[in-house]
Amino acid sequence: MKAYWYDNIEGDQRLPHDSGRPVTPIDLTNLGIICHHYPSLDSVNDLASSRDYKNRDEVTISPTTLPNYEEKVKIFFHEHLHEDEEIRYILDGAGYFDVRSEGDDWIRLRLEKGDLAIMPAGIYHRFTTDEKNYTKAMRLFKDEPKWTPLQRGAETDENNFRKEYLKSRQEGTILSS
Ligand SMILES: CSCCC(=O)/C(O)=C/O
Ligand SMILES: [Fe+2]
């Protein structure tokens, strides 16, 4: 996993957009983000049990495998939040998660095969593949596999999960395990 400040230069979202300014693990911890590199599924299974995640699915984001690819890519890259923690494990290929910093700037996380990221409920973020247009990811869910993105707007700023997230960041109460 590599983390850096996004360069904000207009253009293809799939390009690295690396400003050259690195983001430290402490910056990520302060946002409530946890990253691991797990070469085998055993560690993923252990993490799933320890956080009581009962379900999972796999998604292959590429033009040939994902129905309505172009539409989905747009939805993934539209800034949103979830009311659940988001855990993603990259099984193959690579992709970028952009997450909002405390000052509302974009931080880009490049995840490759074996990388796992946990993003807290309420954090604003978006996702894109890289230029190879291929990300195979495992999505972990506590209960039924459901994926509900709430696009950023006045309503999500008032969302209780968003408010809880901001509160927890002030208090530093999200555990970084
Ligand atoms: C790489 S998993 C597909 C994208 C996704 O689940 C998500 O929540 C993007 O923000
Ligand atoms: Fe998401």
From TrEMBL:
Catalytic reactions on record: 1,2-dihydroxy-5-(methylsulfanyl)pent-1-en-3-one + O2 = 4-methylsulfanyl-2-oxobutanoate + formate + 2 H(+); 1,2-dihydroxy-5-(methylsulfanyl)pent-1-en-3-one + O2 = 3-(methylsulfanyl)propanoate + CO + formate + 2 H(+)
Sections of the chain in a coiled coil: none
Subcellular location(s) of the protein: Cytoplasm; Nucleus
UniProt xrefs under InterPro entries: ARD, ARD_euk, RmlC-like_jellyroll, RmlC_Cupin_sf
UniProt EC number: 1.13.11.54, 1.13.11.53
UniProt keyword annotations, A-Z: Amino-acid biosynthesis, Cytoplasm, Dioxygenase, Iron, Metal-binding, Methionine biosynthesis, Nickel, Nucleus, Oxidoreductase
UniProt keyword Metal-binding present: yes
UniProt cross-references to SUPFAM superfamilies, sorted A to Z: RmlC-like cupins
Cofactor binding note of this UniProt entry: Binds either 1 Fe or Ni cation per monomer. Iron-binding promotes an acireductone dioxygenase reaction producing 2-keto-4-methylthiobutyrate, while nickel-binding promotes an acireductone dioxygenase reaction producing 3-(methylsulfanyl)propanoate.
Binding site for Ni(2+): 80, 82, 86, 125
Keyword S-adenosyl-L-methionine in record: no
GO BP field: L-methionine salvage from methylthioadenosine
Main location, first listed in the record: cytoplasm
Listed HAMAP family: Salvage_MtnD_euk (MF_03154)
Similarity section: Belongs to the acireductone dioxygenase (ARD) family.
Protein name: Acireductone dioxygenase
Originating species: Aureobasidium namibiae CBS 147.97
Gene that encodes it: ADI1
